[in-house]
């Protein structure tokens, strides 16, 4: 399909305005602290919007409808678990972050165990976040490729450079404000696409529900238990909750938002309410997927990759100017996550690696320039991952979430050792981390265990091993109490 000039103009205007807005809202930030945390003055409603927009990438916008198109609505069980996990974060971990001048989540580990534990945990974040968000960049570039009919590598580079530009210009303040704008845009675009879809289905919403019910497309809960099936209630509730504690409790990309809030109360209610918003949002995207199933069943068209179903509908079926608006929504979902990723990666690397180890006496001006330079470095790395992502053999959404659960659970286990124990020292914590990594690697590569369980396996193995090592070494020390 050839995209009309009006649609291209709407999309181009949106991208230009977003970049300009990000640069304008972040102007005057000339210190590293202001750039990384937005002066610690962000209101709760803005933090809420940023949390939701950050965890809603193009993976959500395109792949979740694809999952419902292919199967049913059992994906909704996972965000229910995500909402439960946020409550644990609010009660257990947030109080720790608001003691003292914390800049990264991993400073807590330094205070409890030592510098090596902090470095290992931060390194896991840096590596896995770069990989996961590079894959998200690839998925967002699919739409650009469809529009412009250009090679995938060019599309990835174009998307990556746009995101690098406004993140570099405005820092954390620019990121959270553009997150808010992008949240409004992509939700509005999704609702517009759903409205048009329903208008193309005989009987509209009622006709869709009449057809989808008997076909099993509206099934939302599966109360069976199969550890290899990621879309069952127990897996969603337990596995999703633990994964959420890990991703929203010890992952720098989220912790940085709480640290930028006015105070702990603003951060707490923003995080709690975000769980409800995410459930509603998943329901919207799943309904779009069911509508896509009905639309393409009636037309007789089939697809080999679920990730491309919604993208194809957008570029082939939407009229002007709806096409331009929904394309803007797709790019909003992509850039909200990627800009947050670049900001948190640069913050973590600068504060956990570069300044303490390489430039401990760096002045404020040098710190500011370094954080900005790291945004460019990590942006280029994500572009490289995105280009490689086109050869990925499995569903992009499962691959991205597998990476997240693979390592954040291990880091969560170390955090729990620090929060819930007193005898565990750095050696025991690191042994626990290594054993946790080995066990979850075995589960991921040698078993059929569903990916939502990875975080639970990693966290529990790391915690249990750390406690056992501490108990054994304490008893074995000369002069220890028997």
Give the overall pLDDT as a whole number: 87
Proportion of residues in β-strands: under 5%
Shape: globular
Task: Summarize the biggest pleated sheet.
Answer: none
Q: What's the order of the H and E elements?
A: HHHHHHHHHHHHHHHHHH
* Annotated CATH topology: Sodium/glucose cotransporter
Question: Which key phrases capture this entry?
Answer:
Sodium/glucose cotransporter, mainly alpha, 482 residues, 77% helix, 18 helices
Walkthrough of the structure:
It is globular and about 70 Å long. The chain contains 18 helices and no strands. With 482 residues, the chain is mainly α. Helix content is 77%, strand content 0%. The chain has a single domain, classed as Up-down Bundle (Sodium/glucose cotransporter), CATH 1.20.1730. α3 crosses α8, α3 packs parallel to α12 and α7 runs antiparallel to α16. It starts with a helix and ends in a 6-residue tail after the last helix.
């Amino acid at each position: 399909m050839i995209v009309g000039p009006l649609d291209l103009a709407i999309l181009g205007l949106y991208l230009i305005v977003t970049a300009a807005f990000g640069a304008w809202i972040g102007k005057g930030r000339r210190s590293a602290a202001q750039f990384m945390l937005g002066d610690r003055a962000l209101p709760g409603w803005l933090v809420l919007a940023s949390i939701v927009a950050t965890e809603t990438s193009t993976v959500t916008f395109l792949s979740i409808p694809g999952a419902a198109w292919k199967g049913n609505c059992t994906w909704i069980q996972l965000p229910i678990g995500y909402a439960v996990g946020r409550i644990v974060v609010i009660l257990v971990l947030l109080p720790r972050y608001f003691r003292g001048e914390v800049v990264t989540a991993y400073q807590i580990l330094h205070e409890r165990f030592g510098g090596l534990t902090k470095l290992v945990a931060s390194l896991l974040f840096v590596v896995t976040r770069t990989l996961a968000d590079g894959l998200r960049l690839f998925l967002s570039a699919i739409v650009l490729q469809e529009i412009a009919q250009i090679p995938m590598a060019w599309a990835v580079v174009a998307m990556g450079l746009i995101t690098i530009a406004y993140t570099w210009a405005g820092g954390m303040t620019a990121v959270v404000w553009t997150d808010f704008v992008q949240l409004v845009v992509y939700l509005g675009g999704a609702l517009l696409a759903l409205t048009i879809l329903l208008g193309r289905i005989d009987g509209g919403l009622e006709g869709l529900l009449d057809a989808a019910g008997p076909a099993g497309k509206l099934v939302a809960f599966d109360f069976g238990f199969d550890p290899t099936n990621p879309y069952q209630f127990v897996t969603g509730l337990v596995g999703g909750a633990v994964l959420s504690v890990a991703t929203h409790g010890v992952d720098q990309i989220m912790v940085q938002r709480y640290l930028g809030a006015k105070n702990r109360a603003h951060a707490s209610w923003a995080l709690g309410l975000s769980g409800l918003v995410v459930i509603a949002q998943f329901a919207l995207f799943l309904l779009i997927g069911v509508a896509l199933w009905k639309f393409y069943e009636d037309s007789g068209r089939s697809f080999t990759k679920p990730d491309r179903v919604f993208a194809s509908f957008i570029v082939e079926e939407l009229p002007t100017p709806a096409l331009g608006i929904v394309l803007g929504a797709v790019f909003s979902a992509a850039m909200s996550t990627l800009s947050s990723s670049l900001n948190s990666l640069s913050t973590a690397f600068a504060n956990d690696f570069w300044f303490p180890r390489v430039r401990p006496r760096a002045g404020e001006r040098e710190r500011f320039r370094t954080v900005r330079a790291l945004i460019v470095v990590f942006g280029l790395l994500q572009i490289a991952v995105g280009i490689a992502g086109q050869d990925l053999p499995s569903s992009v959404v499962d691959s991205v979430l597998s990476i997240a659960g693979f390592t954040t659970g291990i880091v969560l286990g170390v955090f729990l050792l620090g929060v819930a124990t007193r005898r565990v020292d750095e050696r025991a914590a690191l042994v626990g981390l290594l054993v946790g990594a080995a066990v979850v690697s075995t589960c991921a590569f040698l078993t059929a265990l569903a990916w939502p369980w990875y975080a639970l396996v990693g966290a529990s193995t790391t915690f249990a091993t750390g406690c056992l090592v501490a108990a054994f070494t304490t008893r074995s020390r000369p002069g220890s109490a028997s």
